[in-house]
């Protein structure tokens, strides 16, 4: 934990001076994809579905797909990336590629450079950041951030994020850790 946490603090210091959101997105994606090891919640936390804070993920050096997405999201928010530019997207991922009929629940982080621009997808399984249109293996179900939940298209949220119990629990844990106010 100490090493990854120290490296993360150095990343924050280094990127805090960087003006470009695109550089921040690329570096943060690479940081977590290289330093966290994928592990299912049942093995790591002895629970079927556990949403870990970034500090919890760093302490274990591991996490599952949503833990990567949250670590990237909150790190980018800490670096000043506007909340409306970031959303977690719950997707059905086609295992084995776009033609496969086998799907699995998966979460990625989307970065919207501008409101009307196609989002870029930050994925724990693929190191390169790609436009959503190039990720035909992912079928979006809904997306969310601290501002709300989006189902289908549209520029405004369809529902309050308070409907996501695990999100509220995650925010409460982060407040207890002193990560957010």
TrEMBL record:
Pfam families: Peptidase_C93 (PF06035). It comes from Vogesella facilis. Signal peptide: none annotated. It comes from the Bacteria. This is Transglutaminase-like cysteine peptidase.
